[in-house]
Design brief:
Layout (H helix, E strand, L loop, with lengths): L7 H22 L9 E6 L2 E3 L1 H7 L3 E2 L8 E5 L3 E5 L4 E7 L2 H15 L3 E4 L3
Protein backbone atom coordinates (compact mmCIF):
# COMPACT_ATOMS: atom_id res chain seq x y z
CA UNK A 1 0.00 0.00 0.00
CA UNK A 2 1.37 3.41 -1.04
CA UNK A 3 0.95 6.28 1.39
CA UNK A 4 0.29 9.66 -0.20
CA UNK A 5 0.99 12.78 1.78
CA UNK A 6 -1.60 15.50 1.43
CA UNK A 7 -0.23 17.54 4.28
CA UNK A 8 0.08 21.23 3.21
CA UNK A 9 3.55 21.60 4.71
CA UNK A 10 4.82 18.55 2.80
CA UNK A 11 3.43 19.93 -0.45
CA UNK A 12 4.98 23.38 0.21
CA UNK A 13 8.39 21.77 0.91
CA UNK A 14 8.24 19.88 -2.40
CA UNK A 15 7.28 23.03 -4.34
CA UNK A 16 10.06 25.08 -2.73
CA UNK A 17 12.57 22.29 -3.45
CA UNK A 18 11.56 22.21 -7.14
CA UNK A 19 11.83 26.00 -7.38
CA UNK A 20 15.37 25.91 -5.96
CA UNK A 21 16.43 23.21 -8.43
CA UNK A 22 14.86 25.17 -11.31
CA UNK A 23 16.61 28.38 -10.24
CA UNK A 24 20.00 26.60 -10.10
CA UNK A 25 19.45 25.18 -13.59
CA UNK A 26 18.50 28.60 -14.99
CA UNK A 27 21.66 30.22 -13.64
CA UNK A 28 23.77 27.99 -15.90
CA UNK A 29 21.60 28.95 -18.89
CA UNK A 30 22.29 32.67 -18.48
CA UNK A 31 25.77 32.43 -20.06
CA UNK A 32 25.81 29.39 -22.36
CA UNK A 33 29.10 28.39 -23.96
CA UNK A 34 28.66 28.32 -27.74
CA UNK A 35 31.00 26.17 -29.80
CA UNK A 36 30.48 25.53 -33.51
CA UNK A 37 31.15 21.86 -34.24
CA UNK A 38 29.72 21.35 -37.72
CA UNK A 39 28.32 23.58 -40.46
CA UNK A 40 26.04 21.97 -43.05
CA UNK A 41 25.58 23.83 -46.33
CA UNK A 42 23.56 23.01 -49.43
CA UNK A 43 24.56 24.30 -52.86
CA UNK A 44 23.42 23.89 -56.44
CA UNK A 45 25.69 23.75 -59.50
CA UNK A 46 22.67 23.99 -61.87
CA UNK A 47 24.15 21.16 -63.93
CA UNK A 48 23.66 17.46 -64.54
CA UNK A 49 26.72 15.52 -63.39
CA UNK A 50 28.03 12.15 -64.60
CA UNK A 51 28.56 10.56 -61.20
CA UNK A 52 29.70 7.23 -62.70
CA UNK A 53 32.67 8.79 -64.51
CA UNK A 54 33.44 11.03 -61.57
CA UNK A 55 33.65 8.08 -59.18
CA UNK A 56 35.77 6.02 -61.60
CA UNK A 57 38.34 8.76 -62.18
CA UNK A 58 38.50 10.56 -58.81
CA UNK A 59 39.74 8.36 -55.97
CA UNK A 60 38.13 10.53 -53.27
CA UNK A 61 34.63 9.87 -54.64
CA UNK A 62 32.49 6.87 -53.66
CA UNK A 63 29.33 6.22 -55.65
CA UNK A 64 27.09 3.20 -55.14
CA UNK A 65 23.69 4.08 -56.64
CA UNK A 66 22.19 0.80 -55.40
CA UNK A 67 22.86 1.94 -51.83
CA UNK A 68 22.43 5.74 -52.03
CA UNK A 69 21.60 8.11 -54.92
CA UNK A 70 24.43 10.52 -54.15
CA UNK A 71 28.19 10.31 -54.56
CA UNK A 72 30.31 11.02 -51.50
CA UNK A 73 33.34 13.21 -52.17
CA UNK A 74 35.66 12.88 -49.18
CA UNK A 75 37.84 15.87 -48.48
CA UNK A 76 40.77 15.72 -45.99
CA UNK A 77 40.17 16.51 -42.32
CA UNK A 78 36.87 14.56 -42.10
CA UNK A 79 34.84 16.78 -44.40
CA UNK A 80 32.52 15.38 -47.03
CA UNK A 81 30.44 16.62 -49.93
CA UNK A 82 27.42 14.65 -51.05
CA UNK A 83 26.87 15.17 -54.78
CA UNK A 84 23.68 14.37 -56.64
CA UNK A 85 23.20 13.84 -60.37
CA UNK A 86 21.09 17.02 -60.63
CA UNK A 87 24.03 19.15 -59.41
CA UNK A 88 22.88 19.65 -55.85
CA UNK A 89 25.50 19.30 -53.13
CA UNK A 90 25.56 19.07 -49.36
CA UNK A 91 28.76 20.05 -47.55
CA UNK A 92 29.32 18.74 -44.01
CA UNK A 93 32.08 18.81 -41.46
CA UNK A 94 33.31 22.39 -41.78
CA UNK A 95 33.66 24.72 -38.81
CA UNK A 96 33.97 28.09 -40.56
CA UNK A 97 32.37 29.85 -43.51
CA UNK A 98 35.80 30.32 -45.09
CA UNK A 99 36.39 26.56 -44.93
CA UNK A 100 33.03 25.92 -46.61
CA UNK A 101 33.81 28.32 -49.46
CA UNK A 102 37.26 26.81 -50.02
CA UNK A 103 35.89 23.26 -50.11
CA UNK A 104 32.96 24.12 -52.40
CA UNK A 105 35.29 25.93 -54.84
CA UNK A 106 37.66 22.95 -54.90
CA UNK A 107 34.89 20.39 -55.42
CA UNK A 108 33.17 22.55 -58.05
CA UNK A 109 36.44 22.73 -59.99
CA UNK A 110 36.89 18.96 -59.96
CA UNK A 111 33.23 18.24 -60.75
CA UNK A 112 33.11 20.76 -63.63
CA UNK A 113 34.93 18.23 -65.83
CA UNK A 114 32.01 15.80 -65.44
CA UNK A 115 29.12 18.12 -66.32
CA UNK A 116 26.79 16.51 -68.86
CA UNK A 117 24.51 19.51 -69.35
CA UNK A 118 23.55 22.78 -67.69
CA UNK A 119 20.17 22.98 -65.98
CA UNK A 120 17.88 25.98 -66.13
CA UNK A 121 17.78 27.92 -62.84
Amino acid sequence: MVKKSTNKTDVKKKVVKKQVVKKEANSSLDNPKINIQNIVVSADLHATIDLYSLSREVRAVDYEPEQFPGAIFRVPESKAIILFKNGKMICTGSKTEKEVKTILEYVSGVVSKYVVSMNKS
